[in-house]
Amino acid sequence: xxxxxxxxxxxxxxxxxxxxxxxxxxxxxxxxxxxxxxxxxxxxxxxxxxxxxxxxxxxxxxxxxxxxxxxxxxxxxxxxxxxxxxxxxxxxxxxxxxxxxxxxxxxxxxxxxxxxxxxxxxxxxxxxxxxxxxxxxxxxxxxxxxxxxxxxxxxxxxxxxxxxxxxxxxxxxxxxxxxxxxxxxx
Length: 186
Description:
Blueprint: H1 7-15, H2 18-42, H3 46-59, H4 76-89, H5 92-106, E1 108-116, E2 120-127, E3 132-136, E4 146-150, E5 156-159, E6 163-167
Antiparallel strand pairs: 1-2, 1-6, 3-4, 4-5
Helix pairs in contact: 3-5
């Protein structure tokens, strides 16, 4: 079929008011930025800064063999390539603690994947969370499509494979973004 969208999804999309959707989207972006600003200010409280440090360090602490990440695959080549990417290219033993700290602080974390057609991922750079928007549902032929928009770079569109979006899910009120561990204190 040319259009594999479920009939329930189609009914929902047709009945959803575009004005309401636009208003809620604008409010969500404003509220998201306000939350990020609050979380940044909250970090100046020593107890909260210490809690974020503990969350991050405990989340990525090495096991008895010194590994912070275990990769399992029946295919030894895939396992080898992923080991090389995470440990050699991305240097997760050094980077993962700070990445995890920002993830628990904001509920979201974005990495720009520097991809070479010949070599694959050759590096990853953290992106400012307040400058990136996640876009879903923009393609009627592919309702599961995801892309990102880098607002301060002229609304540059980044494809799904260019960005790693880590998020703490659990509170549907903040979808498609994550929920900070600091949200209850906020």
